[in-house]
Structures are given as C-alpha cells and as structure tokens.
Amino acid sequence: MRLAVLMGGKGSRVGIEKPEIEICGKKLIEIAIEKYSDYKPIFVCRDHSQAERYAEKFGITCICDSYKGSGPLAGIHAALKHNGNTAVVAIDMPFVKRELLEFIFKKGVETDCDALIPKHKFAEPLLAYYSERSVSEIERAILMGEKRIIVPLSRLRTIFYPADELRAFDKNLISFFNINTPEDIAKAEEICSRIHSGEL
After folding, report:
1. Among the four 2, 18, 63, 160, which has the fewest Cβ within 10 Å?
2. Are the C-beta atoms of 152 and 79 separated by less than 8 Å?
C-alpha cells in the first residue's frame, strides 16, 4: 500500500501546528510515524520550511505542495504526483485503524475507480483512496481557484463507500475522528483513556 500523510496547515484554531498537538502522551507526528512506518509513507507538507524541519528531526520522507494556499486539495495533488495510486490520511486523525486503511486502498484498486471516499453523514476525503488518474482533474480544480475537494470528486469516477460497512475493522468508527479545536483535543484524550481501558 502506498500512503501519504497530509501534514495540514498551521492549526490556527488550536494555537499549534497540527503535527505538534500532543495526545496520549505523544505528538500526532510521532503517532503517525509509529503507526505507519512499515508502509514507508510520504509526509506532505505545506512548504519547504515545514518539510525540512520534520525530515531532519524524524528522518521521514517529506514532500511539498506544488500549489500554495490551496488546502488539502493541494496536498492530495502532491501525493498523487509522487505516489501514483495512494491512500491518504490526515495527520489530525490519530485513531485510524490500519486494517480499515488497507481495506480502503485495496477496494479502490479492485474497483478501478478514480477515488474511493468513505461516507456516513459526511464524506471523508481525508481518509480515502485516490487513483493517479484523478490528478489532472484535481489540478484543474486548483487552477480554477477551487479548494473544496468535493468539486473534482463530482467530476471523477468516485465511489462513496458506506462507512457502516467499515465497522468490521473499526466498530466505533473512531478512525474518522479528527482534531480541529481545543475541545477535540479533550475528546481525543477521552478516547485515549477508553482505548487504554479496553473499551475501544
């Protein structure tokens, strides 16, 4: 499985760069490295400064967005240009189950779709599979000034995969929990405690 970890923006809502957020006694970047290291993932950074800092500190492979200021869409574009067919996951999703991620990638390849996006109430394009065929449509959207991932997805052969069918790998679907606010950090600590106690 080829994997790209999207490192995200400056984390203005939490007051700290997202990879530096600490939960369960570890930074999100440390959690990602520990969880995904055997996939040899690439870490997609917003700029060269971020890439150089994390590559030097952690010895990881970092690449940069080709288009600045275009949000996650630019990160997905950079990942596809580097990896070809790839699974993507955001750094602020610390509870992703590896089995769920592997299934998404495998299903995307098997169905030969342009993108396979889990969906429950909302689509989850930052824990998903993308085919290298989707890169040109994503690039077109970026050049048109579009930042919403759903726009190029609507023009691609996209499968919106029912998230409930992924409960075989993640009963409570905590894989899709992401951190955007201080309240989310508090919730993440609660989830950590429940995982540690064997509840999750």
Report:
1. 160
2. no
pTM (two decimals): 0.95
Spatial distance between the Cα atoms of 91 and 67, rounded to a whole number of angstroms: 19
Contact by Cβ (8 Å): 178, 89: no
| Whole-angstrom distance, CA of residue 128 vs CA of residue 23 | 23
Spell out the domains of the chain, with CATH numbers in brackets: 3-197 (3.90.550.10)
What is the sign, positive or negative, of the torsion defined by CA atoms of 86, 50, 125, 41?
A: positive
pLDDT tens digit at each of 200 positions of the chain: 999 999 977 666 677 899 999 998 999 999 999 999 999 999 999 889 999 999 999 999 999 998 988 899 999 999 999 999 999 999 999 999 999 999 999 999 999 999 999 999 899 999 999 999 999 999 999 999 998 999 999 999 999 999 999 999 999 999 999 999 999 999 999 999 999 888 88
> Could you tell me which residues come within 8 angstroms of residue 7 by beta carbon, excluding any fewer than 6 positions away?
18, 19, 29, 43, 44, 45, 46, 50, 54, 62, 75, 91
Please, are residues 153 and 135 in contact by the beta-carbon 8 Å criterion?
A: no
How far is C-alpha 188 from the chain's CA centre?
17
Maximal CA-CA distance, the chain: 49
Q: Kindly tell me the number of DSSP H helices and DSSP E strands found in the chain.
A: 7, 9
